[in-house]
Amino acid sequence: MGIGTSIFLIAVGAILTFALDANLGGVDLDVVGWILMAAGVLGLVMTTLVWGRRRQVVTTTEPVEYRRVEERRDVTPPL
After folding, report:
1. C-alpha of 33 from chain center
2. 31-46 CB burial, b ≥16 within 10 A, e <16
3. CA-CA distance, 9 to 53, in Å (whole number)?
4. Which of 44, 47, 49 lies closest to 13, judged by CA?
């Protein structure tokens, strides 16, 4: 689940919980909203943890090898 999906679930859950006052055949929209908000927050935390692991910087202590390159100007290049 991405960050966008998590924020969308939090927003839809908040709308169902705080903005609507309706009943659908025995389904409590407040509970559904709270569940969606919890799923969105959980997805946001999990996405943050996964992205945090991916962005670790790997450094090496091996020295860089330098080579000296000389170019001869007295020889004409091949055609």
Report:
1. 24
2. ebbeebbebbeebbee
3. 24
4. 44
**Is pTM beyond 0.85 here?**
no
Tens place of pLDDT per residue across the chain (79 aa): 788 999 999 999 999 999 988 878 888 889 999 999 999 999 999 988 888 776 666 676 777 777 887 877 777 767 7
CA–CA dist 76, 30 (Å, integer): 83
Q: d(Cα 68, Cα 40) in Å, to the nearest integer?
A: 57
